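re: ur question from yesterday

yeah so i grabbed the chain u mentioned. its 350 aa long if i counted rite. heres the sequnce exactly as i have it in my notes:
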Amino acid sequence: MSEKPVEATPAESDHKAGAARQIARISSAETSRNGLRRLGGFFAIREESPLRDRVASSLFCLVVCYGLWWYLTHGPGEERILGYAVLPSPAETFSSFKSLWFDRALTRNLFVTLKRLSLGFGLAAAVGIPLGVLCGCFSRINAFFLPLSLFGRNIPLAALVGLTFSLFGIGEEQKVMFIFIACVAFILSDTASAIQDVGMQYVDTAYTLGANRWQVIQKVLIPLAMPSVFNSLRLLFGLAFGYIMLAETIKLGSESGGLGDIINISMRRGPREHVILVLLIIPLVALGIDRVLIWVQRELFPHRFGGTGILNQCVRACLNGWEDLKGLLLRRTELATSTTTTTGKGNPAS
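ran it thru and got these structure tokens back, copy pasting raw so excuse formatting
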């Protein structure tokens, strides 16, 4: 005999329908949460986004800026939102690049600016880093240089231009010394802070192992602080690129005035497009230099910034070679001294 199918009671049907609705609500809520999670991931705090997203965002920013520039300056002169005297259009600006390159000697002036910047900043680093190390190690030395550091970090740069004109004239020396004075106080302060930020446990460990004061400074404090010092130098170099524009307000005779001189002359005599072009070129050059410095930073300090450590290995090899050379010279000196002493003792006439 075949069994008849058992029909569900009304209560069981209502229960199944309620379960189905509950499952549907859970599925809908899960879908909503997934959507919110994806949207939240787009704006997640400190989450590393994919490279394509970062590149697309940067390109979108450039497109927006260019579009805004074009919108404000398009059309005939009387119909523009911003007139030519205020802001030339993109077409007018880029069409004048040829005259800037050839007639205004853009390349030569760029190299002159970079030379002045490198000399002044290099001198500031050569003075500021050793003094900063001493200030970070010894509180009395830090207190001695503190007034000069505060003065150098807070002096108005416009006033500094007049001061360097009075002290060093209007030649190359003035421009180099302007960058030196503008940067040395920041380098000294940042180096001292980097030395002071090294944990005291490293110093105590070095003393426990028998290191003297100079060895602690040379072998512990300086190597541990140098990643922070180099990073500070890299950031400050970009700011110094803007400082040099102030120093180049005046040039001597027929010398190349640098990018700052091109801006000053273009503001007074024209063409106005050259001002915009130089202002666009300066960040591009500074960005290129910064990319190179970032690579150097990564290769010098791979434990801190990542990288293959090629430059770090080269520096270690040079330092080891220098230590071996010093040891060889010291042994030869001791051998020569002992030989002379032995010969003197063995001579009856002496």
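noticed a couple things. The chain has a mean pLDDT of 81. also The longest helix spans residues 310-346.
anyway ttyl
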